[in-house]
Design a protein that fits this description.
This is DUF461 domain-containing protein. By secondary structure, the chain is α+β, with helices and mostly antiparallel strands. It has 2 helices and 10 strands.
Length: 213
């Protein structure tokens, strides 16, 4: 005959499961930074926070000298609660109030699972600002749909060593205009006398019957 476990036993098992997930988050974040990196040392006073079953761990701000004006937020989120939640926003106090852009607009945090932010194949969180630089410590606030908001102090590092690949990516390059800036106006330029100001190739062009072809 099967017997139901006492409530206290079930709670202990649930707590143990959550603890294992959190331990995995800490280990993954530390390994990602390299064995000699300062981030391999867990510092709960400035890199970790808890909120209603949500564990935010090893958060760092990463900048890249080749991508100025951008800051990436990296780290781990463990949802140890009994229900799924969603990260709806991140803000950085020293970023002049600039919002952090989350990939997809928000990041799902399934119950009893670990979610990595930053790095190849993971959700990204990028802020556009030039006021956060290497060596700075900034107040970073995470806002969840159900759990609420929690803040912590995160250090800023360059995207080198163990953090290579976790920094902000360069903005996509827009396709250049088909008109060459140095192109010589052709005979058809006479038909553009009423063109809008956006047509830079013909701005100020003087109609001429002898235009070079």
């Amino acid at each position: 005959m099967s017997r139901s476990l006492p409530a206290s036993t079930s709670l202990r098992r649930a707590g143990a499961a959550a603890a294992l997930v959190i331990a995995a988050a800490v280990s993954a974040s530390a390994c990602g930074a390299g064995s000699d990196a300062a981030t391999s040392q867990v510092r709960p006073d400035n890199a970790t926070a808890d909120l209603n079953g949500i564990h935010v761990a090893n958060i760092q701000l990463v900048v890249d000298q080749n991508v100025p004006g951008k800051v990436a937020v990296t780290g781990s989120i463990v949802n140890g609660s009994k229900s799924a939640d969603t990260l709806t926003g991140i803000s950085i106090s020293g970023a002049s109030g600039a919002p952090v852009k989350l990939s997809g607009g928000s990041i799902a945090t399934p119950k009893q699972q670990l979610v990595r932010i930053g790095g190849k194949g993971n959700p990204s969180a990028i802020a556009t600002t030039d006021t956060v630089t290497e060596g700075d410590f900034e107040k970073v606030t995470f806002t969840f749909q159900n759990a609420g908001s929690v803040s912590l102090n995160a250090g800023t590092k360059y995207a080198t060593g163990g953090l290579a690949g976790e920094g902000p990516t360069a903005a996509p390059t827009h396709a250049a205009s088909t008109a060459s800036p140095g192109a010589t106006p052709t005979g058809s330029a006479t038909a553009t006398a009423g063109a809008t100001s956006g047509a830079t190739a013909t701005a100020g062009a003087t109609p001429s019957s002898t235009a070079t072809r």
